């Protein structure tokens, strides 16, 4: 069952707004920055979570957009159990191609290994995961199974609520009501050189440029340079110029961002609609391995 709210359900949205920023009773929460990110302790994800713990974990996620949970040496099944608290688990179209020869394939876990022979690393650009899907990933849970010996390999996150709020009123008015095309081939074929498997085609979907979050009710910017090709209602030159400006707005606005330093056995949870992220590849030729479990809701982004 989805826990996402109907945006016309005003009592539910008012209840969220009154609960946001209240003290946490079942988690210990420490901010990572003033605008995005938190570190959470006082919970063991290897054990069954109570309803109160799940509710506070969800609230922390949507309040801070990305939460780091250190000291969580999860098994693959425990990792998937965590993801199911946020929705139906996602199966990535390229998941099978990421499995190392001789390894086991689990369609609900996306894995990768970056090392000295890699031509690229997954996520080395600002993006929202799989925004080309009709119902894009809403929450992801990532763990690294190998960290670079020299350090590095951080993941940076940016707050898309603030990316919208820091635009001028005139630009907000222009963007509201526009839609954009998100194309899997733009990210995976042009970006990674990957081709669809079998007779499948990579998804291409139209989403609102400014969406309204189904949990918080807040508007956020929903375009990213990895997947978004053009704005439907504008000529290509105008679309390219505007999308280029919005990408630079996210990249250059350090006040919107936090950079998360990885630790052994840490789990990173993030809201994939209201935040973008960037995997920093600064550790070549050392190795960084990871596994991601993601949850999808029963609908796509909602126009603001």
UniProtKB/TrEMBL annotation:
Keywords: Dioxygenase, Iron, Metal-binding, Oxidoreductase. One of its GO terms (molecular function) is taurine dioxygenase activity. Signal peptide: none annotated. It holds the Pfam family TauD. GO terms for cellular component: cytoplasm. It comes from the Bacteria. GO terms for biological process: sulfur compound metabolic process. InterPro entries: AtsK-like, TauD-like_sf, TauD/TfdA-like. Residues 29-293 form the TauD/TfdA-like domain. Belongs to the TfdA dioxygenase family. This is Taurine dioxygenase. It comes from Zavarzinia aquatilis. The lineage of its organism: Bacteria, Pseudomonadati, Pseudomonadota, Alphaproteobacteria, Rhodospirillales.
């Amino acid at each position: 069952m989805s826990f996402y709210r109907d945006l016309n359900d005003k009592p539910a949205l008012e209840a969220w707004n009154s609960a946001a920023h209240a003290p946490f009773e079942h988690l210990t929460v420490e901010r990572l920055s003033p605008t995005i990110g938190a570190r959470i302790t006082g919970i063991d994800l290897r054990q069954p979570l109570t309803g109160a713990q799940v509710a506070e974990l969800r609230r922390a996620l949507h309040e801070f957009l990305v939460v780091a949970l250190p000291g969580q040496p999860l098994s693959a099944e425990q990792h998937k159990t965590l993801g199911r608290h946020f929705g139906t688990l996602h199966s990535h179209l390229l998941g099978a191609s990421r499995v190392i020869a001789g390894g086991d394939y689990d369609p609900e876990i996306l894995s990768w290994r970056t090392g000295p022979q890699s031509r690229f690393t997954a996520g080395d650009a600002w993006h929202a995961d799989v925004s080309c899907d009709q119902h894009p990933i809403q929450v992801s849970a990532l763990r690294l199974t190998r960290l670079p010996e020299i350090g590095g390999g951080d993941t940076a996150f940016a707050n898309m609520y603030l990316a919208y709020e820091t635009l001028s009123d005139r630009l907000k008015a222009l963007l509201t009501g526009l839609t954009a095309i998100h194309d899997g081939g733009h990210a995976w074929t042009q970006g990674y050189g990957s081709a669809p498997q079998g007779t499948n085609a990579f998804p291409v979907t139209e989403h609102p440029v400014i969406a309204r979050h189904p949990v918080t009710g807040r508007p956020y910017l929903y375009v990213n340079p990895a997947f978004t090709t053009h704005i439907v209602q504008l000529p290509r030159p105008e679309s390219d110029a505007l999308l280029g400006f919005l990408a630079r707005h996210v990249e250059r606005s350090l006040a919107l961002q936090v950079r998360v330093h990885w630790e052994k056995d840490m789990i990173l949870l993030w809201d994939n609609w209201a935040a973008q992220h960037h995997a920093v590849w600064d550790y070549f030729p050392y190795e960084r391995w990871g596994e991601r479990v993601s949850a999808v809701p029963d609908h796509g982004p909602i126009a603001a």
